[in-house]
From TrEMBL, chain A:
Keyword annotations: Coiled coil, Oxidoreductase
Pfam families: PFOR_II, POR_N
GO MF: oxidoreductase activity
Pyruvate:ferredoxin oxidoreductase core domain residues: 256-350
Origin organism lineage: Bacteria, Pseudomonadati, Bacteroidota, Bacteroidia, Marinilabiliales
Pyruvate flavodoxin/ferredoxin oxidoreductase pyrimidine binding domain span: 15-188
Domain of life: Bacteria
CDD domains in UniProt: TPP_PYR_PFOR_IOR-alpha_like
Coiled coil regions in record: 217-244
Name of the protein in question: 2-oxoglutarate ferredoxin oxidoreductase subunit alpha
Record Gene3D superfamilies: 3.40.50.920, 3.40.50.970
TrEMBL record, chain B:
UniProt keyword rRNA-binding, yes or no: no
UniProt cross-references to Pfam families, sorted A to Z: TPP_enzyme_C
Domain Thiamine pyrophosphate enzyme TPP-binding: 71-223
Recorded superkingdom: Bacteria
Protein's name in the database: 2-oxoglutarate ferredoxin oxidoreductase subunit beta
GO biological process: cellular respiration; small molecule metabolic process
Record's keyword annotation contains Oxidoreductase: yes
Alphabetic keyword roster: Oxidoreductase
UniProtKB/TrEMBL annotation, chain C:
Lineage: superkingdom: Bacteria
UniProtKB keywords: 4Fe-4S, Iron, Iron-sulfur, Metal-binding
Name of the protein described by the UniProt record: 2-oxoglutarate ferredoxin oxidoreductase subunit delta
PROSITE patterns: 4FE4S_FER_1, 4FE4S_FER_2
A molecular-function term among this protein's GO annotations: metal ion binding
Domain 4Fe-4S ferredoxin-type: 6-35, 43-72
SUPFAM superfamilies reported for this sequence: 4Fe-4S ferredoxins
Pfam short name (any one): Fer4_7
PANTHER family assigned: ADENYLYLSULFATE REDUCTASE, BETA SUBUNIT, FERREDOXIN III
């Protein structure tokens, strides 16, 4: 058993980064995620593991520092909250286009615009469908607990390097700010420069040795046929990710007549909702996508064969519901219930919505 | 005639070689217009890298603009940065590779318009990087629009009646601003229109890399340059135009030569 | 008395005929050829090879690094 601590979600992101051998963090303060960098600066990992922590002049600079450090074959990350992620959108597109491994944490708040500092899930589209320009995908992990905030940092780097793709942890202000018991991971040493060379000399800009061609980190290709080939390669990669990396949690779904689909904070609420519904005699289950891209389309498709309907519960105006509908493809009704503006729905109101929209009565 | 040809052949022998293309330049033919200053500055950087023996340890960061493809010509590892973000990308590289030589290469639009914040803050942090700034007073790649450094009265595609300060603001002397920052160690403005100027610029770039080696702070080299296509005159006329119109406003020479400020001297008393 | 003589070799294929080397040459050795290369540029060449001192000024200002310079003492 690893070390147990009571920690905030944001603090855990920092702790997990240090422990998993992260080489660098570049960020800019924004509520409700500022504790990530504050914790790092307090911990002074540069003395302990050699990890670099830098407060940049903006989110734009942060994500481009990540670009430079990720292109160096190092394990690097940034974190921000919704408006800051919008500022990073260009850089994220470049990271995806240059196929650079890195971690981006979005501790979401309500929008649009400056919006609110309260928790939200309104960046689902931005995280899973693009956000920046061009046909690209991020691998998107949605933690529903402080423990998962911890676990997903290391997992993100593993996936990022496996596929040479940016990974996003799509959290929200509730999970970022809440304190829970967490079992911390053991320390993994940072890669030495020799290990970085061994792992990434085929592509990373780590200094051109005489025995190889130049490594150039770029997303630019002016020849259209080559640019199309690049895109085809990206799409094949995303397909592979879709086939191999779907993660979800199914609670009480085996005998369910109705299934709630919810991720992150909304899924925590809905765990209570299914208990309330079952107490009333309704057979309700919860499907919690852990990866939002790749989305558990196949699992939902399978369920659509034997349930009477789905309710997508989200802290937004109904974004993931579109992916649930695509998976269900008209077989059974798919309804949406959610709150916006930084409001977390209560288990009761979700249960009522379930009865009104699906169960009837 | 035969005698002349024979004499030439007697001179063209390996032992008589005095100047050849730098081995740190690739074999690719540069895409730049005939007479473009970029090629000269690329060559100088390649020569400095070669002479310092740091090809394996040098990482370049190219911008968006005409020199986006700088990575095709200097035979080292590169990052191609988003428009204006080269100083941030270079910061990221240098922070995780503190012992590599890292330089950014940017034009006036990239460094002094869209990337002003990244430029100022990288220097203000005293990042141990070299920043090469090509100032040709125009946007070359997009077809000759106004740059932040376009001269007052200068005709460009977006100032067809000449740059008007009331409408477009003043030409930005960003190098003068940079020289004020405590993180700057070496700030200089050079040019490459004559052999003497090329020699001086090469010395400046060499010095900039040495500043980086000694971790003294940011080394910033502006090269006042030409864009004959954008200016719509010949390369030779461009050099004359630059000397006549740009040098008085962007005077050549060192603006700062030392090292970044001692933080101890700035620390508040608590 | 030994005399320093030079010679330049222009890579005709990569020369873009910008004329900067011609202007930089202190001895009027170089000129643009009336013929053009494969890309249509009037490439630089030694019109007056006797005058070359091998000073390398031409190569130094050449943006396309297409000039190689040799220099020898001729008895």
């Amino acid at each position: 058993m690893g070390e147990l601590r009571l920690m905030k979600g944001n603090e855990v992101i920092a702790e997990a980064a240090i422990r998993c051998g992260c080489d660098g963090y570049f960020g800019y303060p924004i509520t409700p995620q500022s504790e990530v960098m504050e914790t790092l600066m307090n911990r002074r990992p540069w003395d302990e593991t050699g990890m670099v922590v830098l407060q940049a002049e903006s989110e734009v600079a942060s994500i481009n520092m990540v670009y430079g450090a990720a292109g160096s074959g190092k394990k690097v990350m940034t974190s921000s909250s919704s408006p800051g992620i919008s500022l990073m959108a260009e850089g994220i597109s470049y990271l995806a286009g240059a196929e650079l491994p890195c971690l981006i944490v979005n501790v979401q708040r309500g929008g649009p615009g400056l919006g609110t500092i309260q928790p939200s899930q309104a960046d689902y589209f931005q995280a899973t469908k693009g956000g920046g320009h061009g046909d690209y995908r991020l691998i998107v992990l949605a933690p529903a607990s402080v423990q998962e905030m911890n676990d997903f940092v290391d997992l993100s780097f593993e996936l990022a390097f496996k596929y040479r793709n940016p990974v996003m942890i799509l959290s929200d202000g509730a999970i970022g700010q809440m304190m829970e018991k967490v079992e911390l991971a053991d320390y993994k040493p940072r890669w030495t420069d020799e290990e970085v060379k061994e792992i990434s000399d085929s592509w990373a800009a780590i200094g051109k040795s005489p025995d190889r061609e130049q490594n150039i980190i770029t997303s630019l290709e002016l020849e259209s046929d080559r640019m199309e080939r690049n895109n085809i390669r990206f799409q094949a990669k995303y397909q592979k990710i879709q086939e191999n990396e779907v993660r979800f949690e199914a609670i009480d779904c085996d005998d369910a007549d109705y299934v709630i689909v919810a991720f992150g904070s909304a899924a925590r609420v809905c765990q209570k909702t299914i208990q309330l519904a079952r107490a009333k005699g309704h057979k309700v289950g919860l499907l919690r996508p852990i990866t939002l891209f790749p989305f558990p389309t196949e699992e939902i498709k399978k369920m659509a064969g034997h349930v009477k309907g789905f309710l997508s519960v989200e802290m937004n105006a109904g974004q993931m519901v579109e992916d649930v509908r695509l998976a269900v493809n008209g077989k059974v009704p798919v309804e949406y219930y959610g709150r916006m503006g930084g409001i977390i729905p209560s288990p009761d109101e979700v249960e009522k919505a379930l009865e009104q929209k699906l169960i009837g009565g | 005639m035969a005698e002349v040809a024979e004499n030439i052949q007697n001179i063209i022998k390996p032992e008589n070689l005095v100047y050849q293309k730098s081995p740190v330049l690739t074999d690719k033919v540069m895409h730049y217009c005939p007479g473009c200053s970029h090629g000269v500055v690329h060559k100088i950087i390649a020569e400095v890298i070669d002479e310092m023996g740091i090809q394996e340890d040098t990482i370049g960061v190219s911008p968006v603009g005409c020199s986006v493809f700088a990575y095709n010509y200097i035979d080292i590892d590169w990052h191609e940065a988003a428009h204006g973000r080269a100083p941030a990308v270079a910061t990221g590289v240098k922070r995780v590779f503190p012992n590599k030589f890292v330089f950014s290469y940017q034009g006036d639009g990239d460094l002094a318009a869209i990337g002003t914040a990244e430029t100022m803050h990288a220097v203000n942090r005293g990042e141990n990087i070299v920043m090469v700034f090509i100032n040709n007073a125009i946007y070359g790649m997009t077809g000759g629009q106004m740059a932040p450094t376009t001269m007052v009265g200068q005709v460009t595609a977006t100032t067809p009646h000449g740059r008007n300060v009331d409408l477009n603001g003043y030409p930005l002397k960003i190098t003068e601003l940079i020289a004020q920052l405590p993180g700057a160690a070496y700030v200089t403005r050079q040019s490459v229109q004559t052999p003497a100027a090329v020699r001086k610029t090469k010395k400046a770039i060499r010095k900039a890399f040495e500043v980086q080696a000694n971790k003294k702070g940011t080394a910033f080299v502006e090269v006042v340059a030409t864009c004959n296509s954008g200016w719509k005159i010949s390369p030779v006329e461009s050099n004359e135009w630059m000397e006549e119109h740009m040098f008085p406003f962007y005077p050549l020479g060192d603006l700062k030569d030392g090292e970044k400020e001692d933080p101890e001297a700035l620390k508040m008393n608590v | 008395m030994a005399k320093v003589k030079g010679a330049v070799v222009v890579d005709v294929d990569t020369c873009k005929g910008c004329n900067l080397c011609v202007v930089a040459c202190p001895t009027q050795t170089l000129a643009l050829h009336r013929n053009v290369n494969g890309k249509g540029y009037h490439y630089s060449y030694m019109e007056n090879p006797e005058a070359c001192t091998g000073c390398s000024n031409c190569a130094m200002v050449c943006p396309d690094s297409c000039i190689t310079v040799y220099r020898a003492k001729i008895a």
